Structure formats: C-alpha cells, structure tokens
Amino acid sequence: MKTNLLKNKKIAIVGGGMAGLTLARLLQMQNVEVKVYERDFNRDVRVQGSTLDLHEGTGLEAMKRAGLLEEFYKNHRAAASEMLLVDRALNIKFDDHGFAKFTSETRPEIDRAPLRDILLNSLHPHTVVWDSRFSSMEKENTGWRIQFKNGTTAYADVVVAADGANSQVRPYLSSLKPVYSGVTLLQGDIDEAAKNTPGLFTFAKGGKVMAFDDEKMIGYGSKGDGSIMFVAAFKCSQSWLSECGIDFKNQDQVLSWFKKEFSTWSEGWQEFFTAHGVSFIPRPQYYFPLDQKWETQNNLTMIGDAAHRMPPFAGEGANVAMQDSFELADVLTNGRFSDIKAALAYFEQDMITRGADATRMTLENTEKMFSKTSLEQMLSFFKNVHGAK
Ligand SMILES: Cc1cc2nc3c(=O)[nH]c(=O)nc-3n(C[C@H](O)[C@H](O)[C@H](O)COP(=O)(O)OP(=O)(O)OC[C@H]3O[C@@H](n4cnc5c(N)ncnc54)[C@H](O)[C@@H]3O)c2cc1C
C-alpha cells in the first residue's frame, strides 16, 4: 500500500511562485495539509514578470501531473513564440513568424500572471497566507516555528523553501553563497505598450524580439495584458549596481546611462527608456556553484531558485523549479521511502544534479550571448532549431 510520509503532518511552503504553488497543488491532490506563506500582500499586488515557455518533461509535465494542462492550453499564447532576431541597428536577421512550429508546439508560452492564476485557483481556499514574509525560524518539537515579519508565527512539521533567488530560508540548509555570472540585466515594464512605446510594440508583431551585438543583448515581448517587459543585459563588475549611483526610479538617469552603455545601438531602442510610466529593476545575475551540496535534514528542504538560481539565458529556471515540485511531491507520497529524510536525500541528490545541468547549459548560453560573435552564433542556433533556410 502507498504510504504518504506526510500523513497527519503540517507542511509549510515559504514562497508562492511557480515552484511553491505547483508543489502545494500536487500535495493537496494527495490530501496533504499544506500552507503557502507568501510575502505579497495579496494575489494582485505585484506585476508578474516575463512570459515563460514551458518545456516537455519539466514545466509542461508539472501542469499535466497537476491536472491543469487543459487550463494551461486555454491560456497559452501561440503568438508569443514567434520571434525576430535583430542586430543593434534593429535590422531583422531572422523572422520565424508563421513557422515558429518548434517553439509553439513543444515549448508553448504563457504569461506568468495567468499561469499563477491557474495554480492559485486550483488550491483549496485559504491555502496561501498572504502578507507572510519569512523572517526566521527555530526548531520546535520535531518541526519548526516560523516567524513572519508581520509578527505572526506558524508551526510546521516540514518546511519547504520556495522563496526564490534571494531565499531567506536557504541559509538554514546551506551557507554557500552564489557566484556572480559577470552579467547584469536591467528589466523594464511598460503598461499599455501600444500607446506608450508604439514603435517597438508594432515592430514585435505580437511576438518577441531579441537583439545581440557588441557583447550585450536586448530582449522584449508583449504580453496578453497589453504590457511589454524588456531586458537590457550587459557585462559589468559585481559591484556595478552599488557603485553606479543611478536612481532607478529616475527615468532621466536611466536613459542617460543607457545612451552611454548602449552608445553603438540604434536610437530606436531609447523609446523604452522615454516611455511613459516605465519602471526599472536592475538584476545582477548569480548562480549557485555546480558542485554544491548540503546535509539533508528530516524536516526542511528547498526547491526552485532558492536551491539553484541561475541567469535566465536558457529559459530553464521556472521549468526546473516546476520539475522540483513534482519530483518532491512524488518522493514524499509514493510510498517508496521509509522516512522523510530518506525521501529528501534522494530528492536533493537528483535535484542538485538537474540544477547543475541546467546551470551549466545556462552558463554556456551566457558565454555565447555575450561574446563578440553573439549575433552570428544566435543566428546559426535559431536557423538550426527551426530548420529554416
Ligand atoms: C527577466 C527574467 C526572465 C526569465 N525568463 C525565464 C524563462 O523564459 N523561462 C524560465 O523557465 N525561467 C525564466 N526565468 C527564471 C524564472 O523566473 C525563475 O527561475 C522562477 O521564477 C523560479 O521560480 P521560484 O518559484 O523558485 O521562485 P520565484 O518565482 O521567484 O518565486 C518566489 C516567491 O517567493 C516569494 N518570497 C520571496 N521572499 C519571501 C519571503 N522572505 N517570505 C515569503 N515569501 C517570499 C516571492 O514573492 C515569490 O512569490 C526568468 C527570470 C528573469 C529574472
């Protein structure tokens, strides 16, 4: 008979991103008592980031196991898979509109907000405890007493850290620090893009645009809600952000930085930086060492970016995170392990290997995308992938 190791136990998932919500859904399908403690004040408070493509065997497999594949396909956006590859002067080098078969069929895209909604709507009412920013925890009986910034506490027999790249729970498992990748990206979000950045909005034809040149890249895509998210990524030192002196709330300061940093790029790109209401988030890109390991505990583990943060240059982060969720739910409920620690040891060993593989691939891509021959390399990559002339 299947023994669910979590029977009569309270599970706390810290962080309601893709990893945390997927895990909560899968555990609830096995009748596990689970709460998700999320720092956001409510489900609508934060703009959700980039459009994601889910991959077979990982992100898509998670949706399948969660019984949410149909909902996923109702909300995915085929147009988001279509892409223009351009140079810094906005000359089109490759256009797969109309034949983005590979990506739309095997790697369908979905905006994060609807994906998050699908997962949230699948959970029992009150599963997510909003406004619960984790601040610390201490051992209590065989589990943990968790302390939140708002002064509340909660007890859990098992805690799962799913609180993303800057996880506050991770240090209870590992003191290993992330390594800087050499690349920082500036993320920009623009609402009502057709009105606020009409030139670049129209140029994208509803899909995405990627530009590589000069050891830099700019990428953007429009989302179903009419907004655009773009990233401008460049090589710089780890201390750039603390030393640059830019106030990222000040559009003029960001524009003048962009003009200097991307001085050889077409002025057409500046439309993003002059757009009404644009908001910026600088994101230095880090990853955890490929050979990381930690001592398995019997009541604590981590998944997603908390366990294996990496730059977004292979589009693997959310996919690996969602795979972590189904692998973890499986080992804890499939009856093949004698106790939680044995299940977690098996899970963590496999996750560390998968995370390292995805990180290695990401770092190889990063090397290519920020090399002097990036445009040629990316052009040949996409031509191969799409079997294009
Ligand atoms: C610009 C950009 C583009 C990307 N593009 C892609 C892509 O195309 N494909 C892909 O697969 N991946 C992509 N990624 C990576 C992807 O976003 C992450 O790998 C993925 O979101 C990880 O999921 P997660 O659930 O582990 O973490 P997150 O999605 O970061 O979720 C963490 C959650 O924890 C919450 N939280 C944080 N701290 C606390 C706290 N102290 N207490 C309580 N809650 C907390 C957060 O509010 C959040 O809801 C991209 C990332 C970036 C930055």
TrEMBL record:
<comment type="subunit">
    <text>Monomer.</text>
</comment>
<dbReference type="InterPro" id="IPR043683">
    <property type="entry name" value="TetX_monooxygenase"/>
</dbReference>
<keyword id="KW-0285">Flavoprotein</keyword>
<keyword id="KW-0274">FAD</keyword>
<dbReference type="InterPro" id="IPR002938">
    <property type="entry name" value="FAD-bd"/>
</dbReference>
<feature type="binding site">
    <location>
        <position position="112"/>
    </location>
    <ligand>
        <name>FAD</name>
    </ligand>
</feature>
<feature type="domain" description="FAD-binding">
    <location>
        <begin position="297"/>
        <end position="332"/>
    </location>
</feature>
<keyword id="KW-0521">NADP</keyword>
<keyword id="KW-0560">Oxidoreductase</keyword>
<keyword id="KW-0547">Nucleotide-binding</keyword>
<keyword id="KW-0503">Monooxygenase</keyword>
<comment type="function">
    <text>An FAD-requiring monooxygenase active on some tetracycline antibiotic derivatives, which leads to their inactivation. Hydroxylates carbon 11a of tetracycline and some analogs.</text>
</comment>
<comment type="similarity">
    <text>Belongs to the aromatic-ring hydroxylase family. TetX subfamily.</text>
</comment>
<keyword id="KW-0963">Cytoplasm</keyword>
<dbReference type="InterPro" id="IPR036188">
    <property type="entry name" value="FAD/NAD-bd_sf"/>
</dbReference>
<feature type="domain" description="FAD-binding">
    <location>
        <begin position="10"/>
        <end position="173"/>
    </location>
</feature>
<dbReference type="GO" id="GO:0004497">
    <property type="term" value="F:monooxygenase activity"/>
</dbReference>
<dbReference type="GO" id="GO:0005737">
    <property type="term" value="C:cytoplasm"/>
</dbReference>
<dbReference type="Pfam" id="PF01494">
    <property type="entry name" value="FAD_binding_3"/>
</dbReference>
<feature type="binding site">
    <location>
        <position position="305"/>
    </location>
    <ligand>
        <name>FAD</name>
    </ligand>
</feature>
<dbReference type="GO" id="GO:0046677">
    <property type="term" value="P:response to antibiotic"/>
</dbReference>
<feature type="binding site">
    <location>
        <position position="46"/>
    </location>
    <ligand>
        <name>NADPH</name>
    </ligand>
</feature>
<protein>
    <recommendedName>
        <fullName>Flavin-dependent monooxygenase</fullName>
        <ecNumber>1.14.13.-</ecNumber>
    </recommendedName>
</protein>
<feature type="binding site">
    <location>
        <position position="53"/>
    </location>
    <ligand>
        <name>FAD</name>
    </ligand>
</feature>
<dbReference type="GO" id="GO:0071949">
    <property type="term" value="F:FAD binding"/>
</dbReference>
